[in-house]
Amino acid sequence: MLQYNLKTLAFKCLALKAIVVVVAVVVVVVIVVVVVLVVAVVVVVVVVVKIPSILFFIYFISKGFLANILFSIELPFTSITIIMIAGTAMRSLGLL
């Protein structure tokens, strides 16, 4: 009976690890795709419109579009980090 429970527990741990790995891979792939798309749009606009790239980047950043994209990518990781720090602080104070 105990051996069966250990096998079941080991299988559940393995399944949980697999889910975590899949989620991590999906997040990395989404971030890479977004960055590649942004770079592709920048290159296409610079080549097609023939705006000098430095002026284009100044214009792009001044409009805040690039900053909004970077902020939207960074926001989930930042919020997770803040939650982890808050949880650690609460645990060290004995609140959790």
Annotation keywords:
single chain; 96 residues; mainly alpha; 2 domains; 0% strand; transmembrane helix; transmembrane; membrane
What does this molecule look like?
By secondary structure, the chain is mainly α. It is 91% helix and 0% strand. The protein folds into two domains: 1-52; 64-96. The longest helix has 48 residues, at 2-49. The radius of gyration is 22 Å and the shape is elongated. The mean pLDDT is 70. Keywords: Membrane, Transmembrane, Transmembrane helix.
Low-confidence stretches: none
Major sheet size, sense and barrel closure: none
Broad shape: elongated
Instruction: Report the helical percentage.
Output: over 70%
% residues in beta strands: under 5%
N- to C-terminal distance:
34 Å
Average of pLDDT = 70
Briefly note the structural class of the backbone: mainly alpha
- Pattern of helices and strands: HHH
Number of strands: 0
Overall number of structural domains: 2
Tell me the Rg in angstroms: 22 Å
DSSP helical segment count: 3
